[in-house]
From TrEMBL, chains A, B:
Gene3D superfamilies: 6-phosphogluconate dehydrogenase C-terminal like domain, NAD(P)-binding Rossmann-like Domain
Ranges that cross the membrane: none
Entries under NCBIfam families matching the protein: PRK07502.1 (NF005694)
Protein name: Prephenate/arogenate dehydrogenase family protein
Amino acid sequence: MSKQIYDRVALIGLGLIASSMFWAIKRAGLVGEVTGYARSSETRDTARRIGLCDRVCDSAAEAAEGSDLVVLCVPVGAMESVMKEIAPVLKPGATISDVGSVKRHVIETVQPHIPEGVHFVPAHPLAGTEHSGPEAGFAELYDNRWCLLVPVENSDPKAVAALRGLWEGMGANVEEMEADHHDLVLAVTSHAPHLIAYTMVGVADDLRRVTDSEVIKYSAAGFRDFTRIAASDPTMWRDVFLTNKDATLEILGRFTEELFALQRAIRTGDGDHLFDYFTHTRAIRRGIIEAGQDTDAPNFGRERAKP
Amino acid sequence: MSKQIYDRVALIGLGLIASSMFWAIKRAGLVGEVTGYARSSETRDTARRIGLCDRVCDSAAEAAEGSDLVVLCVPVGAMESVMKEIAPVLKPGATISDVGSVKRHVIETVQPHIPEGVHFVPAHPLAGTEHSGPEAGFAELYDNRWCLLVPVENSDPKAVAALRGLWEGMGANVEEMEADHHDLVLAVTSHAPHLIAYTMVGVADDLRRVTDSEVIKYSAAGFRDFTRIAASDPTMWRDVFLTNKDATLEILGRFTEELFALQRAIRTGDGDHLFDYFTHTRAIRRGIIEAGQDTDAPNFGRERAKP
Ligand SMILES: NC(=O)c1ccc[n+]([C@@H]2O[C@H](COP(=O)([O-])OP(=O)(O)OC[C@H]3O[C@@H](n4cnc5c(N)ncnc54)[C@H](OP(=O)(O)O)[C@@H]3O)[C@@H](O)[C@H]2O)c1
Ligand SMILES: NC(=O)c1ccc[n+]([C@@H]2O[C@H](COP(=O)([O-])OP(=O)(O)OC[C@H]3O[C@@H](n4cnc5c(N)ncnc54)[C@H](OP(=O)(O)O)[C@@H]3O)[C@@H](O)[C@H]2O)c1
């Protein structure tokens, strides 16, 4: 039984997500030939040097031409222009997918450019690290993580099934979700937390009475987890917030409301309110560990793994 | 050359911090005999079963009597009552220290009960995990972490030097800091981030349109780091916020101000502001890694360490 799902796949954008896809595809032998393209010649050179993609092309159109699946792996704000560029060369029956962290906006901007006879199946792997670029990827990134498929109206079931097979072959668990719901869920589990972490790190940096070197030295207790999140790629995150505006602002509004209530409890010395709130949030952590979505090792296991 | 620094040390409270101290003390042979006491018979039984402390006593006074150093390892709100209980049995020349996460409040409530001829040297090791209790400790917890000594007026230099030696012997880097500055620095690097994480996890749990199981399943991207922080002990954190009220509220005020500015940038589509802000915060992360206070491995190294 051959595991090959597509003869030819093109990855447009060669950063963390695309490079991890490539290594996962190779690990399982899911594709005949993988072509790739990145905007800068620097990234393309790096890709050629480290063997990322079977063939690195000098234009998106060249990479996409003749491919059975083209995956847009660029920041959300760049998807439309890439789609416009490759639209003329797509072969009939090909599938376009993407890995963008926001789905409604990608659908609204990319779908109008999909040629007749080409399928469109948006997707979003819920996996990543704070690192980016072509050398950040590794084959295990998607193992046991979720990949959400967000089929549009009239998405071809066979195209959806093939893409599902690809993500499963790369190690992911696949589910389907509606675009607006996706954007709300991600606003809660990813977008709002990222903005909050960026904000807190910015505040610390900005505080005159505590020096940066103190912040850095004494970061162990809580803050350094925020700094990891706030080290993520600025372009990617700018695009996420600009394109998932409504859901992100809704969640931040709820967050601020709750934060004010807790600040009030601190100010008035309402220890019971604080204690109850903190007891409650523990249960969610337990659930995440039981669902296999994080390690129970103290500090994510990093303390004992010191060099 | 003997490494022994004290003949007898008493640990009052046998949770994460005290148990890690015990194992670190034993690893380096820093103390002749370590006695211990915890409030519940359950914790004392566990301590006896796992060999935590050379002698587990049934009262704080019994553990403290005859000790050269007594370390208060209970929640900040419980320090005063423990101090009152042990004051009558302390031997002249003994040192009282603590590990509380807040220092001004501990000094204000504990110092009045220190008997004549007994030294008082408050301290705070900046190390911990989200786990608590007598079985959570391990000898390596303080390795290469900071321990802040916060001597009070007229702290005896010899008592300070001995305590420094103990913490260095347990693997920590030691610095001295003034109490109010300590409380402000910790509000930035630890207390405010914890409250923010608790808040975000509470908001996610509370949101009707996204189910808890979705939050748990799709937590990979950012949110699960918050849930780890928000899994910390509710009693300890209630006490921290109630006793470091002013500094915490000050930092949360600054945080809210900044968050509003970023929300506004999202609302008005000011991508440049977001991009600049996110670029800036990356530098802090770089500093923390260069200072050896965190790992540079993606996701704290947990992705590749999966079972
Ligand atoms: N990182 C995560 O945690 C994560 C998780 C899930 C989904 N995603 C989504 O995955 C996508 C890629 O993220 P990533 O982390 O892989 O980013 P990355 O490592 O920064 O890589 C982005 C790639 O896109 C290329 N690119 C950027 N702008 C372009 C443009 N205007 N035209 C053509 N190519 C362009 C870049 O080329 P150069 O190298 O030449 O600049 C680079 O190869 C984003 O949509 C993001 O929302 C990310
Ligand atoms: N966890 C951290 O990350 C961290 C880091 C630095 C400093 N600290 C500080 O270290 C101290 C201890 O924290 P921990 O994490 O070790 O806590 P923990 O694991 O929850 O242990 C607390 C210990 O204190 C005992 N205790 C609680 N209330 C008491 C009372 N009223 N009288 C007598 N004993 C009492 C408990 O006894 P039972 O087991 O019988 O309830 C338990 O043995 C706190 O002041 C905290 O602020 C914590």
